[in-house]
């Protein structure tokens, strides 16, 4: 990831995400670590999420259409489907595939130690980067989104990655507890 305080002039916009609520389904997205200048918020549960702008207006909705985020549809503020997300097998390097209207695909790839780093690509062009290593303990982490990317859709995808990552971490922790 770029250095802290990276500006939009280098092609990336840095945000900070704080996860909260029951099972950390709710997110606050801010331009700084103080979370005083919220840009987006996400009110979510296991059935989906509402992505709200800084004024509290719903700009996008994520609807889980198959259990455990196996399939999610993203709807714009008019209710039109703008993208569909498919979560792949845990053994597949392509963790999620988001197909936008017009057949453009965003691919989510897990990498790094314990697969806590996620990158989003369109073809081979990076669109977003997030390092979730602080999520389980601190409930917040930085993300970077390339300029020109649909921010509400990117935030909706961050919500799905956040939720999926926490499920995986909880499952690994439960497995470790059961092994003792």
What does this structure look like?
- The chain is an alpha+beta fold and 180 residues long.
- It contains two helices and twelve strands; from the N terminus they run E-E-E-E-E-E-E-E-E-E-E-H-E-H.
- The protein has a twelve-stranded antiparallel β-barrel.
- A hairpin with a 5-residue loop joins strand 9 (105-111) and strand 10 (117-122).
- It is globular.
- The model is unreliable at 1-7 and 173-180 (pLDDT under 50).
Helical amount among residues, as a percent range? 10-25%
Terminal Cα separation, in Å?
36 Å
Please state the structural category: alpha+beta
Spatial ordering of strands, largest sheet = 1-2-3-4-5-6-7-8-9-10-11-12
> How large, in whole angstroms, is the Cα Rg?
15 Å
Q: Kindly state the number of beta strands.
A: 12
State the order of secondary-structure elements, H for helix, E for strand. EEEEEEEEEEEHEH
Tertiary shape:
globular
Number of helices: 2
Mean pLDDT across all residues, rounded? 81
Biggest pleated sheet: 12 strands, antiparallel, barrel
The stretches of 5 or more residues where confidence is low (pLDDT under 50) are 1-7, 173-180
Proportion of residues in extended strands: over 45%
